[in-house]
Amino acid sequence: MSAQLEAVIVSAEIAPAHDGAAELLVRLRHPNGGEETVSIDAEIGFRLMRNCGAVDLAGLAGQSWRRMMSD
Questions:
Q1: What's the pTM value of the predicted model, to 2 decimals?
Q2: Residue 33, domain member (yes or no)
Q3: 36: number of Cβ within 10 Å
Q4: Per-residue pLDDT of the chain (71 residues; tens, 9 = 90+)
Q5: First to last CA, the chain
Q6: Is 56 a member of any domain?
Q7: CA separation, residue 24 to residues 1, 2, 31, 32 (Å)
Q8: How far apart are CA 20 and CA 35, in angstroms?
Q9: For residues 46 and 26, what is the distance between their CA atoms, to the nearest angstrom?
Q10: Could you tell me if 37 and 27 are in contact, meaning their C-beta atoms sit under 8 angstroms apart?
Q11: How many CB atoms lie within 10 A of CB 44?
């Protein structure tokens, strides 16, 4: 599916979760221009980076949000 038809990652940052563990805050932009931030745990964050071929958080920008769900 084209990135123009689905949400894409705008940015990501590491933040503390309520339990003290690290989590990844991912800012998404939807096709209608709306944005939202979602938090994902470290395991899914590492999977997302691997699936995107990102060596740092900046490498996630422009990627499809769906890459969080791929193995």
A1: 0.83
A2: yes
A3: 11
A4: 444 689 999 999 999 988 888 999 999 999 999 999 999 998 999 999 999 999 999 999 999 988 877 66
A5: 17
A6: yes
A7: 24, 24, 22, 24
A8: 26
A9: 12
A10: yes
A11: 15
Q: In terms of residue numbers, what domain contains 7?
A: 3-66
> Beta partners for 39?
25
Does residue 71 lie within any of the structural domains? no
Distance of CA 53 to the CA centre of its chain: 13
Cβ–Cβ < 8 Å for 33, 50:
no
Task: Label each residue of 2-54 as H, E or C.
Answer: CHHHCCEEEEEEEEECCCCCEEEEEEEECCCCCEEEEEEEHHHHHHHHHHHCC
Q: How many domains does the chain have?
A: 1
> Would 48 be classed as within a structural domain?
yes
